[in-house]
Design a protein that fits this description.
Chains A, B: Keywords: DNA-binding, Transcription, Transcription regulation. The structure is a homodimer. By secondary structure, chain A is mainly α. Chain A contains eight helices and three strands; from the N terminus they run H-H-H-E-H-H-E-E-H-H-H. Chain A has helices at 14-17, 28-35, 41-49, 55-60, 73-85, 107-110, 113-123, 127-132; strands spanning 53-54, 89-94, 100-105. Chains A and B meet through helix 1, helix 2, helix 3, helix 4 and helix 7 of A and helix 1, helix 2, helix 3, helix 4 and helix 7 of B. Chain B binds a DNA duplex through residues 1, 3-4, 37-39, 54-56, 71-78, 81, 93, 95-101.
Chain lengths: 134, 134
DNA sequence: ACCCTTTTTGTCCGTATTTACAGAAACGTA
DNA sequence: TACGTTTCTGTAAATACGGACAAAAAGGGT
């Protein structure tokens, strides 16, 4: 193979869904983990599927990987901000003391729910724990 | 919030699937992008869904992100090896010259197909291109 | 002996992401 | 005025990831 590989054919993942993807120029699979990068975004979506949640609630419901490794506020803040920028969640701040901020799913975020559901279904067999040797 | 957040409740993503997850200790969503890290693994799974593929075929069918940025052999090799280590794909080398190596999905890899399908379905509306501003 | 193909590795480097740690803002309450 | 709570930011260090580049293995063909 050459030093770098290039491709001429357009994307055609037909067989997976049977859907016409001819109008799509960017592979959804690659876009997916570009949009959902960072370690906690998928989990945050899961949490918010249960309804609006406060910053602290999300943080507390978040486990770090497998163990009880906690998430630091710095990271949670960044993840939430990125997700807001991408239109997956909305942020609503209440003018009270102590501060109260609630995050919830947008339409765009809800569009990912079927994917989340499949991931949970996939995990219900425990394969992910096997693979990671938990 | 404290400097670090910890959590006492077990995972409960019940509402998403209606499945009993009490026996699961690690959040599938977090495990998912720990197992499918790297930029190309999801895409590689899609390609291999079409049947066994050679190293060069996979490389050629892989676009880098959105543009025609090519993947370097070094990276493809690493991705494939990691996926093999995690039991998602198998590697079969034929004793011929020039070398011929074929990769294919394992049971474990096939278990992810429903997730892939949902991701493609999600992308069929073009949301991912909107979000990334392609 | 040298070149060709295909697959793969070694090494190095720059960037991106994660993490730790400290601290700020906002304001009611003691 | 000091304190507490909640949300969030600044800074710097640590680690992971992506990519460039060269090169090796394994023979067949010329």
């Amino acid at each position: 193979m050459n030093k770098t590989m290039t491709e001429s054919r357009g994307p055609a993942f037909s067989s997976l869904t049977g859907l016409d993807m001819s109008h799509i120029r960017l592979c959804p699979a690659i876009a997916f983990n570009q949009i959902l990068n960072g370690r906690y975004k998928l989990h945050i979506l899961c949490v918010l599927y249960g309804g609006p949640r406060r910053y602290g609630e999300i943080g507390r419901s978040l486990l770090h990987g497998s163990l009880n490794r906690p998430i630091t506020p710095r990271i949670l803040s960044r993840e939430l901000k990125q997700m807001e920028e991408r239109g997956l969640i909305t942020r609503k701040a209440y003018p009270v003391v102590p501060k109260r901020v609630e995050y919830s799913l947008t339409e765009r975020g809800r569009a990912l729910v079927p994917v989340l559901a499949e991931i949970i279904r996939w995990g219900s067999s425990g394969v992910h724990e096997e693979i990671l040797g938990v």
